[in-house]
Specification:
By secondary structure, the protein is α/β, with parallel strands linked by helices. Helices cover 41% and strands 18% of the residues. It contains 11 helices and 8 strands. Strand 1, helix 1 and strand 2 form a beta-alpha-beta unit. Helix 1 packs across helix 11, helix 3 packs across helix 5 and helix 6 packs across helix 11. The longest helix is centred in the N-terminal third of the chain and has 15 residues. The termini are far apart.
Amino acid sequence: MTNHRIGLIVPSSNLTMETELPRMLHARERVIPDETFTFHSSRMRMKHVTAEELVAMNAQTERATMEIADARPDVVASACLVAIMAQGPGYHCNAEAQITGVLDREGVAAPVVSSAGALLRALEALGAKRIAMVTPYMKPLTKLVADYIEDAGCEVVDTLSLEVSDNLAVARLDPAGLREHWRKVDTSDVDALVLSACVQMPSLAAIQPVEDAAGIPVLSAATATVFTALTELGLRTEVPDAGRLLSGEVTMERAPRRAGEPTA
């Protein structure tokens, strides 16, 4: 039996990443019992999803990475999609390089996954060129996320913004609501539906039912993060009842390890 340590860097008010990721990977253990997972987190202060607080949170990355490095994780996932995408196209590359640089300094060779980069990679692995998307964000932030995805070469055909700015309130949203919310976006000519473009908005319970109803691949920032983390660990990308992305049939190559940014 092999245990894999998953390092998570999360906003201080995030309640969902540390529940949905373990739920997915523990479900995987039931079908692949010789591969187990433990979860180890560090936190960066953020209470409201505003541009100002996102910038302030990003400034805490080095400290949070140093803390998670002490657990000697096998992979590190940075879990706040909008904090990265709000900084402008391609910023996930900078964020991942910053974390890698700190890990290098601390003697940890773990691959780094950001939820922002993971979503882009998952869409590419699915062959999705046109998507629809549901977010909990205010409309200006949803537009920033859509622009970021489009800059990476995937057209965002339609979006739905639930307009919840308090991050704890986002975590309290009922995932059952997504079984109806998705019907408010145009999915008539898209390759995939991003049911939650935010790792704080609970969505796991709705992924498979909505995919069954919509007839297209349905994913979230959280399922994309798990897909990418499993890929970087060299493991089969299979989680029961979590959509086609995690069926074990969708694969991609591991990313070359990004050169770390020098740190003090």
